[in-house]
Write a structure and sequence with these properties.
The protein has 111 residues and is α+β, with helices and mostly antiparallel strands. The chain is 29% helix and 34% strand. It has helices at residues 34-42, 82-88, 92-107, and strands spanning 3-13, 24-28, 50-53, 61-70, 73-80. The two termini are 26 Å apart.
Length: 111
């Protein structure tokens, strides 16, 4: 899989409208670890779109937004309260996104 870029926005916010103030970090082609490219393919991350997680989970809200461009396709999805959502409404999509975002955070040295 040829990944052109991964854009990742992450932070804690008090209300969903504050998500636009978060700064995105971008990994571009040539700087994307093979492990992330493989994970995108293995976990079919490109098929995920829309909103996942629980917006009403409490304050502050853990917010993440991911945009990936690969193989002439692009996907964007956002996740609210990822960790808490795994306990109350675990889905296959959320599990795949959880694993991907944890590895992406490690790569970007956010955790």
């Amino acid at each position: 899989m040829n990944v052109k870029f991964i854009r990742y926005k992450y932070g804690m916010i008090n209300k969903p409208s504050q998500r636009t103030k978060l700064v995105a970090k971008t990994l571009e082609e040539g700087n994307i670890p093979l492990e992330l490219s493989r994970l995108i393919e293995e976990k079919d991350i490109m098929s995920i779109k829309g909103t996942l997680g629980n917006k009403e989970g409490g304050v502050p809200i853990e917010y993440e937004e991911v945009t990936i461009s690969a193989d002439e396709k692009e996907t964007t999805f956002e996740i609210y309260n990822k960790g808490m959502s795994m306990f109350i409404a675990e889905t296959n999509e959320l599990k795949r996104v959880f694993e991907f975002c944890v590895r992406l955070q490690r790569e970007l040295k956010l955790r």
